[in-house]
Amino acid sequence: MRKFLLFGSFALIALTLPTLCAFSQQPEKKPLPETASARLAKAKNVMVARERGSDIPYDTIKTTLDGWGRFTLVDSPEKADLVVTVATIGGDSSVRVATSSGPSPLTGRPEQSSNSSKDFSNAEITMTVYDAKSKRVLWAATETAKSALKQTTRENNLVEAAERLTTKFHDRLEPPPTKDKD
User: Fold this and answer.
1) pTM score, two decimals?
2) Sign (positive/negative) of CA torsion 74, 51, 174, 131?
3) Which residue intervals of the chain are DSSP H helices?
4) Which of 88, 106, 132, 139 is the most buried (most CB within 10 A)?
5) pLDDT string in tens for the chain (182-residue length)
C-alpha cells in the first residue's frame, strides 16, 4: 500500500509540474508600438509628393524641408522613412464661361449669349506626413492662402501659406525655446 501511495504522489507531481512551470514563466512581452513623435524624431529620409493642385506649395515645402538640413530628400517611398504629401484645393482663379442659345426676346431670331465668371476663392493647402512603411499618418495640417486678384499676389499668398505649414511641422519636431519670465 505504501508503494502505491508513493507511486501516486510521483504521478501527481509529474502531472502538475508542467502546469506549474507554465504559470511561473513570464508572458512574452510584445514591444509597444512606436509613438508618432518617436517615429518623426528618428526619421532621416523623406520623400515629398504632390497629391493634387498647384505646384507652388509643393515646391515651397520641398525646398524648405531640403534647406532645413534635418532630412535627406529621396525619390521613392522604398528609400524613405517618411512620405510628405502636399495637396492644394481651390484658389485657382479659374474662369468659367457659359454659353446659351435661344430666341431673342426682342426680335424672336435665334441668338447666342455667353457670360463668364472668375472664381477668387481661397486656396487650402494640406500637408500630410505618413510613415513610409506602415502608411500611418504621423502629422497633418491645413493652411488657407488668402485670395487675391493679381496672379503674383496669389502666388505669394500660396508661398506664405506653405511656409506656415512647414514652420508648424518644424516646431512640432523642434519646439522653439520658451521665453523665461523674469
Assistant:
1) 0.67
2) negative
3) 2-24, 36-42, 55-68, 151-173
4) 88
5) 555 454 555 555 555 555 555 555 556 666 667 788 889 999 999 999 999 999 999 999 999 999 999 999 999 999 999 999 999 998 655 545 566 677 767 777 777 766 665 556 789 999 999 999 999 999 999 999 998 888 899 999 999 999 999 999 999 999 888 876 65
157 and 148 Cβ atoms separated by less than 8 Å: yes
| Unique residue bearing C-alpha cell 457659359 | 98
What is the domain partition of the chain in residue ranges? 32-173
Kindly report the CATH class assigned to 32-173.
Answer: alpha beta
- Sorted by sequence, the CB contacts under 8 Å of residue 83 that are 6+ apart come out as 46, 47, 49, 77, 129, 130, 131, 132
